[in-house]
Amino acid sequence: MSTGFDPGAAPRPDVRSEMLLGARSLAAPAPPSEARGITSDLSVDEALLLHAAGWEPLDLVCGVAVVSVPVGVWNWGRGAISLASDAHDQAVDQAAAQLRGECSKVHGHGVVGVRVEVSVRTHHIDVELVGTAVRPIGGKDARGTDAAQAMPFVSDLSARDFTLLQRAGWMPVGLAFGASFVYAPRRTAGTAMKQTRQNVELTNYTEAMYSARESAMEKMQHSALHTGGQGVVEVKVTEGPMSFARHAVGFTAWGTAVRLVAEAHQFVKPQVVLPLDDAVVTFDAESLRGGAAKGRRR
Amino acid sequence: MTDGQVGAAGPGEPGEPAGPAEGAPGTDLPEAAVRRLESTAFSSGLTVPDFAACLDLGLQPVALVQGFCVMQWGWYGQGSGYMRGMSPYVGGPQSAGSYSETYRCPHGFVSNEHRSWGQNLEQPWVEAAWAQGYGSAYQRMIEEATAHGAHGVIGVVDRVSSVADTGTTEFHFLGTAVTVDGGPPPAGGVPWSTYLAGQRLTKSIEAGFMPVAVVAALASVRVWAYCITEYLMEGNMSWGSPTGPHLIEQVSKAHMAVRQLARKHVRQQLTGDELHGATIDVVARELSQGDEVIDCTLRGNRMRRFKDFDQVELPRPTVRLS
To answer: What is the CATH number assigned to the segment(s) B31-72+126-208?
Structure first.
């Protein structure tokens, strides 16, 4: 039971008086303004957290690229489908360049919380990136303002993760992407017949899939190094057959490339907390009838 | 509230609806709505935690309010005048200042079927029709709230959906009308509105942001493909089309343009305020021969800063032992 006494807690603002203050601000007509309104897809929590870390949102920015996939690429074949991988890489690069361009236009130093949408179609690959351009409050950046605006970072980390990363002495530098498309390998008719009643590993399948996954990840790491990163965090891996070509399988891997900007990694020293709101053990009528359970957690 | 200006007018600004609608002639609320609004019981669409947070803020829920509008789409088809221009040198039927871009074929005359030029064309008539439907539904919800003497509407939920198989679209708004304990009515009597409720609304208020209105806009761009776009989108090999992966410039630009237009339309409604918690939805319908219609909806909370922001202390990272 709460005693209502919490000596460590900061005094909480009186939300009712804040609400009244807000309501009064709308009681009078708004003065005409030429200010360029800020747009952002951040939640309230994210905006507050960013502000606490010394950053502010500027604008909702996006980058889209549609790149063609040449005819015949998805036809039956063997090994990697390199033209599809190239198309994917090109689409991501173009979309990221557009996102950076939009960010620079509003004098942003980076884009956080980027939502990545990739759609692979028969004849084209579409990539859409949407996020919020941000900059340090006051515009001061360790990289230098001009450098930061010339090459803003792009990151799919949430504002929370971005804040934590920065606190640990690291900064995002860009999105790292890798994709690999392969034809599902085929066995000869004889081999297929022979293996019909066997429990055996299909080594050609294993090798093809293994190799394609590794290839996607390798490309992602290469792209991280290319953007000046030392590593990649929050890696997402997707895989699956193409809906329009079931004999082809696509693997993609992407994450945020990061670089250490402090002299050394800063330990964030998290505080260990033990929540006291454990599940309550309650009386269970079943236990009276010889049930094994003595109590039930709720 | 029409002409693409959904929720644009905040309290006390031009474009606001005139006066309370209760008992006023000309109100288009259904009779059942008027009877319900006259009831002494309050109703709300808030969850229990949101309801508790609402009371904590000094907001008294007065009624669940809603607004509808069903629109028929008659933009396309035979007899529609909404086509691209008659030549690459003439724009489409859009109003001045609308986005359009023309692409010309590099081949010269090939045949009558050859797509010797193409256009990306903003469709303001689509945008205006959407804004009319969305704006009317919003307006009706605000009318219901005004009839209750509400100061604001919180926890707004909006939905745009097809009505069965009738080729019509329904716009639906739902929210909880509230009054502010001891607070003045908004300028002009127009209630403010927000998608937020509960703790998220409380945090916004504590951070110094007061909701003004929900804002939304649709941007629509039609792609009339020219030959190269057609080849690339359809996977046809032809003279002049690249053999390797190639950026499809016309379609990429249309996709960028539709998003930028949606942002521009919404920004016009902000008049210096801020847009928080924006969501962007894009629907692209591939037609044929590389043609596409791309619609982009952007919506969010228009917020006004009413006090200087107190920077919160950077939260301490924690690890739970359970």
So the answer is: 3.30.110.70
